[in-house]
Design goal:
- There is one protein chain.
- This protein has helices spanning 2-18, 23-45, 62-80, 95-114, 118-121, 141-165; strands at 124-126, 138-140.
- It is built from six helices and two strands; from the N terminus they run H-H-H-H-H-E-E-H.
- The N and C termini lie far apart (42 Å).
- It is globular, with a radius of gyration of 18 Å.
- Strands 1-2 form a two-stranded antiparallel sheet.
- The protein has a single domain (23-173), classed as Four Helix Bundle (Hemerythrin (Met), subunit A), CATH 1.20.120.
- The chain is 62% helix and 3% strand.
């Protein structure tokens, strides 16, 4: 048993070593890169005429879901940069404008993640995104960015149903 645990520890250390000086950020980049690519692909795949589609009353339109992620990405990454910038995608309805906004929001977050080290990833900042928290709550940059990935994946899953209801196979299921 001890040999098995030691072997697993060595394998884990080797994996971290293979990821370079910033293994935490390297793993984050993998998860983030996957959803970034999937999200842009789903936004591009939905035909323009279905950007105003919502499956039932009370749900947002497909286009509004794209705008939601673009605005959330920009707000979170802006906050991590110590800025207070907004993208303003909610007012857009045309597919081309919303796809461009999604790409812009991911490019903005790329600049945050690409410059991040593991040491910086473990620094705390005021909590950004997610449900309201008590004043003064702080989270690590790593937590905040993984929450951004989680949120984008959640919305992607919802949007996949919009495509399927229109007879379109979502990008990650092709």
């Amino acid at each position: 048993m001890i040999k098995k645990v030691a072997g697993m520890a060595l394998a884990g250390a080797a994996m971290l070593s293979a990821q370079g000086a910033n293994p935490l950020v390297a793993e984050l980049k993998t998860s983030y890169g996957n959803i970034k690519n999937s999200f842009v692909r789903i936004a591009e795949k939905m035909p323009e005429e279905f950007y105003g589609y919502k499956p039932v009353e009370g749900l947002e339109t497909f286009g509004r879901r794209v705008a939601h992620i673009a605005d959330a990405n920009y707000a979170v990454c802006s906050g991590l940069k110590g800025e207070n910038k907004r993208l303003g995608s909610a007012a857009k309805t045309a597919k081309a404008d919303l796809v461009a906004a999604a790409k812009e929001s991911f490019a903005y977050c790329d600049s945050v993640i690409d410059s991040l080290t593991d040491e910086q990833a473990l620094e705390t900042t005021p909590a950004l995104g997610g449900p309201p928290l008590p004043a003064g709550t702080r989270r690590t940059r790593l937590f905040t960015l993984y929450n951004l990935v989680r949120h984008s994946n959640e919305v992607y899953g919802n949007m996949s149903l919009y495509l399927r209801l229109k007879g379109i196979v979502p990008p990650t299921s092709e």
